[in-house]
Amino acid sequence: MPAPLVEVRSISKTFTRKAKAAGGSVTHKALDAVSFSMTTPERIALIGPSGSGKSTLLRSISGLHTIDRGEGMVTVLGSTVQANGRLSSDVRAIRSRMGMIAQQFNLVGRLTLFTNVALGFLGKISGLRSLMGLWTSQEKQTVMRALNHVGVAAMAGQRANTLSGGQQQRGAIARAIVQGAEIVLADEPVASLDPVTARKVMKLLVDLNERDKVGVIVTLHQVDYAKTYCNRILALKDGKIVYDGPAAGLSDDILKDIYGAEIEDAYWGEPHA
Ligand SMILES: Nc1ncnc2c1ncn2[C@@H]1O[C@H](COP(=O)(O)OP(=O)(O)O)[C@@H](O)[C@H]1O
Ligand SMILES: [Mg+2]
What we know:
By secondary structure, the chain is α/β, with parallel strands linked by helices. It has helices at about 55-60, 90-95, 115-120, 125-130, 135-150, 165-180, 195-210, 225-230, 250-260, and strands at about 5-20, 25-40, 45, 75, 80-85, 85, 100, 185, 215-220, 230-235, 240-245. The strands form 2 sheets. The protein has a 6-stranded mixed sheet, sandwiched between helices. Helix 5 (about 135-150) packs across helix 6 (about 165-180) and helix 6 (about 165-180) runs parallel beside helix 7 (about 195-210). The protein is globular and about 55 Å long. Residues about 270-273 have low confidence and may be disordered. Bound molecules: adenosine-5'-diphosphate (ADP) and magnesium ion. Magnesium ion binds near residues 54, 55 and 187.
């Protein structure tokens, strides 16, 4: 059997910050013994109220946060990202197989969309060649095909900072395609977009999963997006997983428990079509 795409075993993450009033420092457990695994390419929505630990979990999977010492470990595509609070030495190599998409600022503003997407080759080709923009004709074709696939080929020569939010997110997805990412971790990728654009971007993530068999983990602010576009939902509350199952099984009672008074905000910011 192939290795799981992602395996998160009993990870905790404690943040410590200085606080004068508390007479020194206060600690906050952002993740508390979180475990889950993705064995086949799925679309997992990570939901939960603000501050529940969604971003911390994604950053722990990509090795941008080290987890607390102890038995916790993160494995991606059969390689250990981190264990016992220490990053593995080959974390860069593992990261080159993961695509990362944030809420915004995914692209380098002064570079063209084309160059931003071609940067997906970084790690596979020499840095000097990429710095000089010396792409082979095959690489150029790959970039243009990816841009075409996400629907922004016409803007290839435009500086990224002149693109709309939606166009930039499409560019970030194209870069993940060029990178050949086997897993995409997206942190609130549609939070800054209007609903129509947001749906288009979500459909591209669905397509990445179905067409290219990429495992997608996406944090979403709104429950409806999670239910509509993902097959599995992981809900976090106070750093603990309180639901892990099919989107259809997420009942209103569970949602009320997760979101409490914030429940109204957890639905579409628009009337149902
Ligand atoms: N770098 C950090 N330093 C201190 N506390 C942090 C840091 N990052 C996150 N936290 C805290 O950890 C908790 C979880 O944060 P986060 O993972 O960003 O939540 P979410 O993405 O679900 O909104 C919050 O209480 C947040 O304030
Ligand atoms: Mg977050």
